[in-house]
Design brief:
This protein starts with a helix and ends in a 14-residue tail after the last helix. The protein has 14 helices and nine strands.
Length: about 325
């Protein structure tokens, strides 16, 4: 994939080039990048791509940065050789990088997350999958999946295929893996937002096969060799909710951004499984409770998802 100067500068400034973030200069966070980007636009350079040849003094003068800030940005901007090697390594396994300046960047993220949208994503698969309406199935590993929950997941996967929706999951064992396998076996399209270990994930079955069939898109904000952490899971779930027209939470530990998604309307229709005690705080905050789902119940709910004027209310709207 060819990249514009703005896209290349975005990667230089924000990408971690090692999985454990052992960097000579720490990449900019989303908030730091937005401030740097705003300073560039306010200067006579007008864009970050024009700053790649600017020295430390120039960054201090034209962007009003401190010496420490300018040194950090200058160091990041001059990682071109290391970045090229990293991109080549990722490409060998079909992993690309897409930035907010590239046409394949999912616009749903900027629409829903605004300035909080990640400046870049690692991706593999079929980008057109992200243009489909989508339903998310959300859960964590280590929780027993009851027969009723399993039946509901299977019915959601079948209904998504029938209604023309992609299924979005977070890649963890449990209900996410159950949904993933259901799409792989029964047909349909899949989006997986990962919080780590992307390189191994895209090479495994059934994901590699689905990518080859043009039915899957894999996304992550984390280095492809990074491990899953709680912070990575929060960032991953932000993608899951922002990309979904509706999200069904089957279980949670309450630490992965679900309440934030309800409060910020990151996804307009969020449902929580009544059969899991840990979901009660989410229901109290405005998630719609649901029990065993059959085709008729899913069809009825989906009528709300397609209405752009409808939006779920939460307790935060009452404050």
């Amino acid at each position: 994939m060819g990249h514009s100067d703005d896209a290349y500068a975005t990667m230089l400034l924000t990408m971690a080039l090692s999985p454990n973030r052992d960097e000579y200069a720490r990449p900019l966070s989303v908030g730091e990048f937005r401030r740097f980007e705003a300073a560039a636009r306010a200067s006579h350079f007008r864009c970050i791509g024009a700053l790649m040849d600017l020295d430390i003094s120039g960054m201090m003068i034209y962007l009003d940065q401190t010496e420490t800030e300018a040194y950090r940005a200058y160091t990041l901007m001059h990682r071109g050789v290391q970045l090229s090697y990293a991109l080549e390594s990722f490409a060998m396994q079909g992993i690309d990088v897409v930035t907010q300046y590239d046409p394949d960047y999912p616009r749903r993220l900027t629409d829903k997350l605004g300035d909080g949208a990640p400046p870049f994503l690692y991706r593999a698969g079929t980008a057109a999958t992200l243009d489909m309406p989508a339903v998310a199935i959300v859960g964590i590993s280590g929780v027993h999946t009851s027969p009723a929950a399993r039946e509901s997941v299977e019915n959601l996967v079948r209904a998504a295929r029938r209604l023309g929706y992609a299924v979005i999951v977070g890649g963890e064992p449990g209900v996410c893996r159950l949904a993933e396998n259901g799409v792989a076996a029964g047909g349909g399209s899949l989006v997986v937002a990962l919080g780590g270990d992307m390189r191994a994930y895209v090479a495994g079955d059934p994901i590699a096969r689905m990518i080859g069939e043009g039915r899957a898109e894999i996304l992550s904000t984390e280095h492809p060799d990074a491990l899953l952490t709680v912070n990575h899971a929060i960032a991953r779930n932000r993608l899951v909710f922002a990309l979904a027209d509706a999200a069904f939470i089957f279980n949670t530990d309450g630490r992965r951004g679900e309440a934030e998604a309800i409060q910020n309307h990151t996804c307009d229709w969020i449902y929580a499984w009544e059969g899991f005690d840990g979901n009660r705080p989410l229901i109290a905050r405005g998630a719609r409770p649901f029990g065993t789902l059959d085709a008729a119940a899913i069809d009825e709910a989906s009528r709300h998802w397609s209405s752009s004027s409808a939006r779920q209310m939460s307790m935060f709207d009452m404050l």
